[in-house]
Amino acid sequence: MIIDRLYEEVEKKGIVCVGLDTHLDYIPKKLKDEYQDVDRIMFEFNKRIIDNTLDIVPIYKLQIAYYEAYGIKGLMAYKRTLEYIKSAGSLSIGDIKRGDISSTAEMYGKAHFEGDFEADFITLNPYMGFDTITPYLKYLERRDKGIFVLLRTSNPGAKDIQYLKAGPQSNYIYYHIGDRLKELGQNYIGSCGYSLIGAVVGGTHIDEGEEIRNKYKNMFFLIPGYGRQGGKGKDVVIYLNKRNGGIVNSSRGIITSYKKYEDGDKNFEKYARLAVLDMREDILNGERI
Ligand SMILES: O=c1ccn([C@@H]2O[C@H](COP(=O)(O)O)[C@@H](O)[C@H]2O)c(=O)[nH]1
């Protein structure tokens, strides 16, 4: 199962997920001068970061908006990067956050689990209802794909809807989502103990972190919010379990880290690697033994 592969990769390489949110402004001028075409520039930037972090990163996340923003060429870079990650023996998350009626969701499934944009995992938004999730389950039956469903997100506005209270016990809405996902996820648990149905939990709100980890023991977490959004090692570590059970994403914090150094433009991939190692250490230092 793909979740067992992810678990094993985390065991070997650690918990840092590199976010390839490849804005052209984040790419050194030197590289832009070298390759004139947007698709080649974006792909080369990604490739060099991947090549330099492959042994310390279990999975890469591509936020599709950064590629869509550059039109067809951007999407070519998205496709080539996903293919490259696969050919390098690593894993990918297509951060697409889809959520639509089932007939449309069928087509999203085809596009992102089968077609040119095929990824190992995708992110989904359940806030339009659970019928928006069902069409993806047929891919989970095959055991080689997984989903991360938004539970409690990292942005300040998460409180606007996710923290409303509902139901007879007046629980936060995100707990209603979590309980349904937990139930659904029971059919897809791998030998590592985690389900192909994982959840996105922001590493920026720590108040209910421990409760979320304890309540959803079989759920693997995708944890964004570290670094640029303010999440620290000690904030995100509460969502992990024995240094596994989750991956902590950082995008800008890693791929633009070279900008702090005088020779950064020439060595951006080296500084991306350093940022991954620093982040891993910061998270493990936050661990309560
Ligand atoms: O709750 C969420 C869900 C997804 N994201 C995504 O993660 C990265 C974060 O980027 P940084 O540069 O490390 O802040 C980005 O792709 C978001 O779309 C999130 O931040 N929060």
TrEMBL record:
Alphabetized PANTHER family for the sequence: OROTIDINE 5'-PHOSPHATE DECARBOXYLASE
NCBIfam families in UniProt: pyrF_sub2
EC number(s) stated in the UniProt entry for this protein: 4.1.1.23
Alphabetical list of SUPFAM superfamilies matching this protein: Ribulose-phoshate binding barrel
Broad EC category: lyase
Name this protein carries in UniProt: Orotidine 5'-phosphate decarboxylase
Gene Ontology biological-process entries: 'de novo' pyrimidine nucleobase biosynthetic process; 'de novo' UMP biosynthetic process
Domain Orotidine 5'-phosphate decarboxylase intervals: 15-267
Catalytic-site annotation from UniProt: K97
A family per Pfam: OMPdecase
